[in-house]
Each structure stands twice: as C-alpha cells, then as structure tokens.
Model the fold of this input.
Amino acid sequence: MSETQSGSLEPLLILKNGNISREEMVGREQVVCVEALRSIRRRFEEERNRAKWGSPAWSRAQGQADRWDSRAWNLERCSTSQVFRLRCEKGHGFSYRAVRCGYQFCGHCHSSRQAEKRQSIVDKLSRWRSPWPRMATLTLRNRPAGQLGAMVDELERCFDELRRTRPWQSAVDGAVAVVEVTASVEKGWHAHLHVLWDGALLDQESLIREWRRITGDPTGFVHLKAFRANSNSSAQAKLVAAGYVASYASKGIEVRKFDEQGLMLKDERGRKVAGSLAELPAEMLEEWLVEFFGRRTIRAYGIHLGKPECWEEDRRPWDGVLRCWCGCVAVADAQRDACLQFIDDNRRYIAGLAQKRRDRRRALERQAGLAGLPF
Done:
C-alpha cells in the first residue's frame, strides 16, 4: 500500500473490479482499531479524573491510560511506516516494514506474527511421539456482547476439567491448545478451542459425551480432524498442522455474517463471507481488545509444556538482521542501509519518549509526596 507523507492514517483507496482490495480493507481496520484503543484510553482517563489525586486508584488509572495510549501510538506508527524494497541472498524481492507493532489485530504484522507462532508450534511438535498430528475442536454456545471474558474463562475451565477425565488421560500424552474467537452482530461472540494432541486415537462419542456433561450444554459440538491425509510424510504433516493452528493463533477477530434466517452467508464457491472489523460495533471491538491484550493465545500441556505466549510479552527481540520470508538475509545495498538507519533512528526516538514518560511519572510522585498524599 502506498504510504502517506503526512503521517495520517487515511489509506489510499485501491479498487479492483469494483471490489474492496486488501490494502483498503487493512487501512480501514487500522483506523478503527486506533480509534478503539484511544476510546479505551479515554475511559481510563475518566476513571482517573473521578479518583482522588495521588491515590492508588488514581495511579492505576493513570498507568492504564498511558499503556493504552502507547498501544494506539504503536499501531498508528506501524500503519504509516515506511516500506523498503529489499532483495535476499537467493534473489527474492520482498518488502520490509521498518516500524512494526506486532499486534495480533494488525493487518501489516499478521504474516510475521503467524510465522513466529508456527515456529513455536513446530518446536513443540518436534517432541511428539505420535507420527501423525490430530486435532479436536471444542465449542461453547454463543454469548451476547459483554460476556466475552466470561466465555473464554469458561472454555478454558471446561477444557481443564476435560483433561482430568478418563477418556482423555488414557489416550493423550500432551497437547497444544489455541483459542479462536469469531464475532457477528447478529449472534454475538463465538469462542472455540483447537487442540492438537499427541497420543492414541480418541473416541469421538465418549469425548462428546464428556464435553456435554462438563459444559452442561446438550448441543455441545466436538469435531476431530487428522492431518495424515494432507501429506505423505510425518514431518510435512506436522508442518501443515502447525501452520493450520498458527493461523488461528495469529489472527484477530473473524467477523462473520448471517442472513435473516440465521444461516451463515457464503459466496458462489461455498466459502464463508468474512466481514471487517470496521463493521463491528465499537463496544464489541473495545471489549475484545481489553479481554485479549495479555491473554495467552497458545497453551501447552503434558510433554509439550513450555513457556506460554501472549501478544506483547513474548515477542522475540530483533537481532538486527533483515530477513526475507524464506529466511535468508537481505543483501547489502543502499535500500538495506537506509532501512537499518531508519530503524535505528526510530529506536532512539522511542527511547526518548519512554524517558520523558518516566520523568513525568517521577515528577507526579514528587508532587504527591510534597503534598503529603499517598501515591
């Protein structure tokens, strides 16, 4: 997408055969997400203004307001970042975005985010005893807006209880679970769990019976899927399974559309018609952002137990090397040097802003101390 020189978030509209292009869709979603992050910041600022100056409640609200303001600023910088055209050692041409936020709902960072998640899952699958990966999908009944956090908590609690049942313990040695959330204006939130497990085959009837008993929902749905049919080798099947699950772990909300009869809309080829974040009500988008910032997106159990992953804390630090999508290093040229210089200047600029924020914080603490107020 062409970058704007003014630094604003207005995207350049590109139409293809009368349809909305991906560049335009990503631009619209970025604008909506930035406004939602700033709306959450204003909510904490109002909470801060209602609290007594210098009190613990004031300090917590101020910290949250600064945090959400920083997230909105990072997303805005990522949306308007300069893009460099580079070439790797194998001759592949690729685009490199100099400033990246790494957020799950960012359309520009989705591919790199998915690659990191896929590599993390592949590292876990390398310890598998079973040669062929299998996946179970566990669902709950839809919930209206305002109950997303409670729904995801219940989904994880029910899965923890399922792991203590006899059918699960007798067949499963370890598992990797990923939470996926879809939304629609008509039906609200729909959260489900994708679980890759290592071990023997699970009996679907027994699994459905136990899941319905745990959730208390007689219509609870459990789907089992094997990845052996998609590949001729065990290693390739694990790569396919890792990429399949990583696509759920790295994406944001999937907005779905329904007709008047409550049936999901599909195109001429039978594929689901996906909506945009811009079509969601602002309350639902803000609810999702608040609930999923810092929440684990991948959980490992049994022999795959390892460090959990979330949105911000587990991003790998940059090693100072520009890499292509194939993993090769970018060749030395004027574009690569300009990109590295741009990244270095941006890091110094962000460090200066962080230092100013810390200085302002210390000044407020000194004022509160001089006034004899608890801070």
Remarks:
- Residues 334-370 form the longest helix (37 residues).
